[in-house]
Design brief:
Two copies of one chain form a homodimer.
Chain A lengths: L8 H25 L7 H12 L5 H12 L4 H26 L3 E2 L2 E2 L1 H5 L22 H24 L5 H27 L8 H28 L3 H28 L2 H4 L5 H5 L4 H9 L2 H10 L7 H13 L2 H19 L7 H16 L3
Antiparallel strand pairs in A: 1-2
């Protein structure tokens, strides 16, 4: 099947509509930052660039579609959709720090920006002997955590501001709080996993699901549906679509992280292997590779200084063991399962068509 | 005036009532942790101990009093009061990591616990060659951040679960989201302040206010009042009490952090000086000390390896410059201002009496 970079209409539309809103919100923060007791203009500027520098706007678009599926109006879910994009930025910023990633969406991660001279605050030009200290790695990391958390607080403000009846806004916010606990736990498991000696395949997949899958599809759709006051049948059909697709999306992400083109994904390929991530790809290969290939994979996995030739050797193992093929087939199978859920009479036809396009894009995207 | 360790009745009552609730909530998490794909029992156990190991339970008690001031029933604000204690734990855990503090409430901070062997997960006893890896400092720090964030998610769940009419629960939650943004920004300013060359006294006080003052008094009281549907007059009177008292509390904290007895405060005295914190004490001394004393203070401030004799020399500067005396007088003045706000007819007499006791305890406490 062909890789694609053309996003479905609903994603493009939401990106067009949300970008100026996100930009205005972040510009306001940048302006306010100059008036703070310590001038944080550079730090807020880096956060603005990080949030606006792309991203698929998938979660916000899904929130609007969940609302439409439940018969709600677009504006009822719009602030929540913006909130989900900020929520996503929060998770990425913290994840970047924890994984020590230096690049995201084709630019520096926040803790990397903040460690640069004048990355946080500006030199006071009026005092002659002033030089702004460069943040230590620890201070830069702490500030990245805090700027990520700021995005989270703004996300909550947006979600709580949904212009719907209070019981609906409240139910939606409770869902977000639950999801917040779940995704945080998933991330904790992900960080803790290398401390455990071995990890069964099911356990590894469950961690990925907690960490990424559930909040990418299930949360946005259910959030939009709750804001619209959708019926149980509609919410059930959306969940039946979201759960397999969340897994398929994660597998596609793993494939891109190992076989993707860095100029399209915005992050260096092979990093998952350098970090020793127990992806479905790796777990499958460990099970089915020849003993020699298995030893080769284990010797390279988790080596932070692995060069491109070393990465390519590991990719060879993933190919020969059938792991790549298996992962592609598995993501297609899950995608088909998600699409089948859209046959439900409780999903309006137009919404179903968009969700089908998103399902296919999610597993066949190039970035 | 005399130091006191005896807390006001409302604090003792709330501690008695909330401790079993917090314990049950955390025990449930510990039990669930054993069933996760990676057994996180030790990590959740450390979190439970951290949360339950004391604390004044000031914020929760104030939330209940805010509710009582507005004519609400105790149970209407109780989940939110529990939520504020979890929210406080979240901020402390992140703060400990950022300040690299090793001790809190007389025990290890989370990032310190997590860096110990088997501090996060347990060795699988069934596999003979298994040894559980010790978390690197970076992984231990990341996990501390995540376990702090878990407390925050649970805090939101508790606050959103308040058994009041949805519009009230929603208004209360919006307040919390705003406060979350404010306190996060305060913490970011605190971390960034050493990067700026100099910091004016007003700027330093403003940062402390953002970071601690507002969420300790103003937030809990206003939260309780909103849940009760309090009148504007009552909310105004509570704010007039909370604002000066937040500042007074912070000054008392600074005094304890420098002159307090570690066996009572649960953290080592002098750490504020070792960290180079720009407290009111330090800022006053820098302004009014003799040139020699000023030089002595600047030479020691921010030295992480300062021994007890070095700390005592700096304390001498704070005493001789009049900074200690000034800080004590200032906290008393602000406390009196807070007490005056309680004369308002919009505050029921019994609630006013409790808030008065809390004001005095807050500035004269020994821990």
């Amino acid at each position: 099947m062909t890789r694609t970079s053309v996003a479905p209409t609903s994603l493009l539309e939401f990106a067009r509509e949300s970008d100026p809103v996100l930009r205005a919100l972040l510009e306001e923060k940048v302006s306010a930052a100059a008036k703070l007791p310590v001038d944080l203009t550079p730090a807020f500027g880096a956060l603005r660039d990080y949030v606006l520098r792309g991203g698929k706007r998938l979660r916000g678009a899904l929130c609007l579609l969940g609302c439409a599926a439940g018969g709600g109006a677009r504006h009822e879910a719009f602030t929540a959709a913006i909130g989900l994009e900020l929520f996503h930025a929060y998770l990425l910023v913290h994840d970047d720090f924890m994984d020590r990633d230096e690049e995201r969406r084709g630019g520096p991660t926040l803790h990397v920006s903040f460690a640069r001279p004048e990355g946080v605050t500006r030199a006071a030009k009026t005092v002659s002997d002033v030089s702004v200290a460069t943040a230590s790695a620890h201070a830069a990391g702490s500030l990245a955590i805090l700027f990520g958390s700021l995005c989270q607080a703004w996300a909550l403000e947006q979600i709580l501001a949904a212009p719907v009846a209070p019981p609906r806004a409240l139910a939606a916010s409770r869902l977000v709080a639950r999801a917040l606990a779940e995704v945080t736990l998933g991330q904790a498991l992900d960080v803790a996993a290398p401390l455990a000696h071995s990890l069964a395949r099911d356990a590894a997949l469950r961690i990925e699901e907690l960490k990424t899958g559930s909040y990418t599809f299930a949360l946005p759709l259910e959030l939009g549906a709750l804001l619209a006051g959708a019926s149980d049948a509609t919410r059930g059909a959306l969940a039946n679509y979201a759960l397999p697709l969340g897994k398929a999306f994660q597998i596609a992400d793993d494939l891109l992280g190992t076989f993707g083109a860095p100029e399209q994904t915005g992050k260096s390929a092979g990093n998952d292997l350098r970090e020793g991530k127990r992806t479905l790809l790796v777990l499958h290969a460990l099970e089915f590779a020849t003993p020699a290939d298995r030893a080769l994979l284990l010797s390279g996995l988790g080596k932070h200084d692995l060069d491109e030739a070393g990465i390519e050797a590991l990719r060879g193992v993933l190919r020969r063991s059938g792991a790549e093929e298996f992962a592609r087939a598995e993501s297609e199978r899950l995608c088909a399962q998600a699409e089948a859920a859209l046959e439900s009479k409780s999903i309006p036809t137009a919404v179903g068509a968009e969700l089908r396009a998103i399902a296919r894009y999610s597993v066949r995207r190039a970035s």
